[in-house]
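writing this on my phone so excuse typos. first protein, seq and then structure
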Amino acid sequence: MSTRVGGWVAGALAVSVFAVGCMQAKKPVPAGIEWNQSFTAALVDAQAHHRPILLDFYTDW
């Protein structure tokens, strides 16, 4: 009986630690996205920060 109670206590403790860890923000959330309209400027910025580039093409044919 003691082993079963210990298992429940350990499980509850693990879930509590996991829940508290998930609630804490790891990084501040940015206020918004800053879009670059110049391909050259976006390429320089992406290379400097080691990030990919998203090219969004749209037409209304």
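second protein below, same order as before
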Amino acid sequence: MKRKIYTLIFSCVIGLTYGQTGSEFGPKDVLLCDFEDINLVVLDSLWTDSTMVTAITTPSGNISIADNPFPLENESPLAAKYIRPEGSYKSVFLRFNKSITLSQTPYLQVQVYPVAGKSPISSKVSITLLNDRGEIVSGGATMENLPQDEWTTVTAFLGKFKSSDLYNTIQITINADDSLSMLGGTEYYIDQIGFKAPEDGVELPSTIFYETFGMYNDPWQKGEVEGQFSFPNADGTGVVGPGEVGTAEAYASIGGFTSGIPFTFKDVQADTAAALIARTWGMSSKYEGASSNGRIQFISYKPGTLATGDMDVKGNTDFVLSFGIGTQTWWPYNSEIANARPKVEISVDGGNFYEISSNSTFLQFTGNVVDLGWGPMEEFEDQIFVMVEYPFTTIEGTPLDSANTINLRMSYKSGTDFWIDDLWLSAETIGGGSAVRYNKAETFNVYPNPATSYINAENAQSVCISDMSGRVVMQAKNVEDMIDVSALQNSIYIIKVQIDGHEKVGKFIKQ
């Protein structure tokens, strides 16, 4: 059994701590490799050449099974000892043959132990889930500042990615910068590789699509991709681009769209291609699981509408679009930051487009007021993403219960020019495969719903409230009457209660 040591969760390059316990694997988790009872072959690379025809099956010569160096922290007697050769970027790979449902087990976990005197004082580890032929875009995480002579659990939250049998490989990269190359090979231990379920047992919504807008791309940033161009800036004194500006097709050609959705970016009124502004380096976020690098911009003075085309959504209900929105004005004393909004429209089953709304909290006043010599100025959240949600409704504003196809489009609406990232359309599955559920739980009817300050939970022995990513945001015990939810951000939440020994689950909107 593994004890909890450190658990931090990141997605792709940047992220935040996340409420999920590492190490121990339970009945709902999927343990892929413990180097004792369950083993996978560890490889130095996947294919003999770039054509990816002949798979490498020879185990890495840099991996051996050894005694656990610190069994007081990690109670397993054995682990994989990894002597990382000096040199440039190096990884090890583990192929597996289990189908992983990421809405059920969204946390990829690896334990790493850097050896003192044989590794940097502070280590950096990346873990990635991928398809070894590159047929679909991978997801993963990077964690920095791992201490020496301690087991650290590195975890990637992948719950937004669409589950696929094509995922079959885990890549582990330790200290890619090779900061101790002058010492020769560096030494680590690796253990407990697998996927974990959310602590509260609530399965995440199923994914219709999840768009991260790609990773860093140097040719795109330099304007060297075919289909990039420039256009006059707002005041006509210069130009924007060609770096970071081009057609949607040009951005797609460098792998900028990751979800498989054939996005278009057009001037809808003129029915012509519009200038897509995409930046492939990251910005900080206030939410967990940020993909960090690629993002696209909507600007006030240049028409442009991002559209998915008709998507097959049969068999789903309770559709929710969420995404990160952020500005990068480099001047946070601008009240228009708080008004930054996209226009989000949907077309259901080929009908006319209509706008839907959000009750989320967007970019806000930070509470700071400064005086730089010309009077007090309020500071707003700039250079950071916040997560917002748009529940899909009918044109009358009632919840959209079902649809055969949905076409989604987004454009600039108001406020400061803004960026979006982590575009996630999720839903519940109609019938027995409900995407948000708790095992054998009864329905809890939430009142009032939507809620502004409280919800009734009379005589509940326990209450657990989670957001739609599975993160626990509130817990209470022995509730006599009501739960105060006024401090929650405007969003959609799952509530699980215990009443008279029965588990009940419901959903409510905080507004």
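The helical segments are 218-222, 248-253. thats all i got for now
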